[in-house]
Amino acid sequence: MSELVVQSKYGPVKISKLEEGTEYKIGVRVFTKKDLMDMPVEVLRAVFRERTHHTVEVYIWDALNGVPPEDWLGPPPAQLGDETKPLLAAWVERGLPIHGLPDVEYGVDMLWLSDEVNAGRTPILQTKLPEPFSEDEMKTMEKLIKERRSIRRFKHKDVEDWKIMEILEAGVRAPVGCNTQAQRFLVVDDMAGLKLLKGDIPLHKWPNSAKMIVVCQDTRIYNQLALDKFVPQNMFMDAACAADHMLLMAHALGLAGCWLTHPPELHSQIRRMYSLPEYIVPQLRLLIGYAEDAPVKSQKMPVQDALQSCILRYRTGIDRAKYPGVAEKFQKQ
What domains lie within the chain, and their CATH numbers? Predict the structure, then answer.
């Protein structure tokens, strides 16, 4: 069986070339060489990310820090990296690039670590535990989280491209289920598109003053991984996390934003207007611009009113009689 050698940041990774007639079990599906060689590039890349996350990354810290396998985060595979190597082989055999693509490079690095663990070696993992923010950093965080609000009137001032890119970067960095990274962003700044998507925002009075970011998703990725069957809610959560991150970044950049949703029948209209393929689903949209008004920010209920954990109530000393919750019932059983 011939081998391929791919360079990680730690050292070389050896993988076997794909073979005709061999079946490769990857996740809940079985693939042939032809399946992997014909898979759309964006989907192959996403499956490589997801399998690296679920079959290597979640185990590697435990493996390198002496945690017994029975205490790992779930039952580990017989050999770490077995499911991801055929995916990387397909990537390399198709002549696709590795270097300059951080998510693909990460997968290669995880495979090198997997090989070390499988060989009984324990290289030092160069990672750090979370550290608390300084007092000044916490003030910035509170300012960001507590002062952001929805704005619906915008100035005659165009949003700079570099700020839009910072906002999109924040969306890419948002938490995403299974490391699929299936979110796609459509930036709309033409008047026809803004009128279609404006909802209850009076944009016709301020042409070209705001931009719309439509948070879309590549459903091929969820379908290929069967996530649409086993965890269909992930699609909506992934889109929401991306939108939240982008609104916070917009606020940090001195911009205003408003979160808008739309009915499913608008999906086809958006796809037609911007020539998007059928597998791209526009989930929600954000209006971003320079604020013209400063509305009174709505206030949130105290955290005690939302708290349903009797354990947290006990630890925080919250008056249970004053703030009863659903979880109280279970404590008495």
Answer: 3-118 (no CATH), 135-289 (3.40.109.10), 300-333 (no CATH)
